[in-house]
Amino acid sequence: MPEKKSKCETKSDGIEDKCVDSETNCPTNSVQINALNHESRRSAFSPYRPSTVLTNLQRGNIQTQTPTNWPERSIHQLFVKTVDGYYHVIREMRLEFDIICIEDSVCNKSPVVHVEHRLGLESWCVRHLYHYTYHKFLDSRIANRIGDDSINEWTRALLLINGDLSTAWSARKELIEKGYLKVLSELKFSEVILTRKPKSGDNFSHREWLLKYLMKSETISDELITNELRVTLEAASRYNRNYHSWSHRIWIIKNLFNNSYEKLNCDLVITKCWLETHVSDYSCYQFRQFLFTYIHKNFIPTIDDNSDSVSNQ
């Protein structure tokens, strides 16, 4: 069969607008664009310059090496580093610590929780953390590794969980005597433990030892005394009828007040205001009874003698 021929009408710009069959004079569906194939014209999709193939090193990328020995990242390290970070970041706000009651780990995440100035540890890992750190602490004590800061980390993790561990408090006393810890930072750490264990006799005994140790080299400032009085009231507020807290307050009056009548009278006013919101706390009544007896024993005879001398004049 003879092939059908078609003729195309060409416009002045070189683009064939439509093609018509020569026999039927019907337009065909094919549209040819000669301008794209024209040498003097260039398509918008054609590259302006030839592409170059570059390797990663030619682009400036640096080849990384995968470490063969990964560093040990235990729960206690994450826990201790978080506490250290809070000590450096939070200065005016007081850090609080507690254990969050979560029996099972439902997702793969850190058991250390921190919100604002509050730090928490999920309860499912407490037993594992305490068992691990306790054995590490004993190994460090046997090896007498005091200067490498390991005992400081182990005892810190242990005491945050169990604030009545006397062995850990004794180890921290050795660190202070050898100059590895500062007294003021240790007082701050002890205050953090009191937020969870407000009735810890070993903790209050440790604070008394710290203040005695500080008195050997310098005079206790009024700001530090005020802070100690605040700590005792906060501990008494957290735990009703807190015998150890009020006993520590009595120790402060006997050893740090220097028989100041103004300070004693001020403490009477403070405890009276506190007692108005804690009516059933009879430990505070006993403390106030001690205050009245102490004032009567040390100041009332002096006042009576002065009044007699004035009357004689």
From TrEMBL:
Q: What would be one Gene Ontology cellular-component term for the protein?
A: cytoplasm
Q: Does the keyword Transferase apply?
A: yes
Q: What residue stretch is flagged as signal peptide?
A: none
- Which Gene3D superfamilies does the protein's record reference? Protein prenylyltransferase
Molecular-function GO term, any one? protein prenyltransferase activity
Q: Which keywords label this protein? A: Prenyltransferase, Repeat, Transferase
**Source species, domain of life:** Eukaryota
Q: Name one Pfam family in it.
A: PPTA
Q: Which PANTHER family match?
A: PROTEIN FARNESYLTRANSFERASE ALPHA SUBUNIT/RAB GERANYLGERANYL TRANSFERASE ALPHA SUBUNIT, PROTEIN PRENYLTRANSFERASE ALPHA SUBUNIT REPEAT-CONTAINING PROTEIN 1
Family stated for the protein in its record: Belongs to the protein prenyltransferase subunit alpha family.
The name on file for this protein is: Protein prenyltransferase alpha subunit
